[in-house]
Amino acid sequence: xxxxxxxxxxxxxxxxxxxxxxxxxxxxxxxxxxxxxxxxxxxxxxxxxxxxxxxxxxxxxxxxxxxxxxxxxxxxxxxxxxxxxxxxxxxxxxxxxxxxxxxxxxxxxxxxxxxxxxxxxxxxxxxxxxxxxxxxxxxxxxxxxxxxxxxxxxxxxxxxxxxxxxxxxxxxxxxxxxxxxxxxxxxxxxxxxxxxxxxxxxxxxxxxxxxxxxxxxxxxxxxxxxxxxxxxxxxxxxxxxxxxxxxxxxxxxxxxxxxxxxxxxxxxxxxxxxxxxxxx
Length: 280
Known about the structure:
It is a single chain. By secondary structure, the chain is an all-alpha fold. The chain has helices at residues 2-20, 24-49, 54-64, 66-84, 90-110, 112-119, 126-130, 157-193, 203-216, 226-237, 244-252, 260-278.
């Protein structure tokens, strides 16, 4: 009962930490401290009270100790990732995340049999995996621990916590990757809203040019509708034309200079040629 109370207290404080921290780094730092404190409390309790039965010992190392330990692993990995990931360069970030993802996949592939044993809910090997009597039957894992506490370790309790903790970390990597891609899409979208070239003449000038393009067969040999072409023209050159047909009606109703801007275009180009000829 004491161990369960310590675990419930840990869960409440963890939820509070996740709710009240303002950044993932802060959550990871506070989470690591909370996990270490809880594991220290659990070890002291085991030293003082031990276990009433083999079943209680198995339950502790399988279901209680693994909770703060898995979050310790998770937060340690997250903190490391947040600090080490390249600050600049989209491709560099994706490559870093790919290396981390491959490392996680390699761990799970290496420990697939144990993972399936646990996920299938089997119990036939629990005595060997989760009692301290068989501590020497340690598997090869990524933890590289040279000393294992005979009071507070079994052969597979840390491996089970690694499976759960790295599973959380794998989900974090997936979400991180998605956030970067979404941020890149938004950045590209923002750049599209501020194009490098803007049409700076009035909308009526754009409509003169668009109708002239159609008659000249400058695009698609003239096989296009005015409205979709106008929408495309507006998107490319950052201009707003809500009623292209209304603007064309204004052009046709002119009494003089019906091709006002096209004539200006022609005059400007001819003036340019004349100036150029003077310096030739």
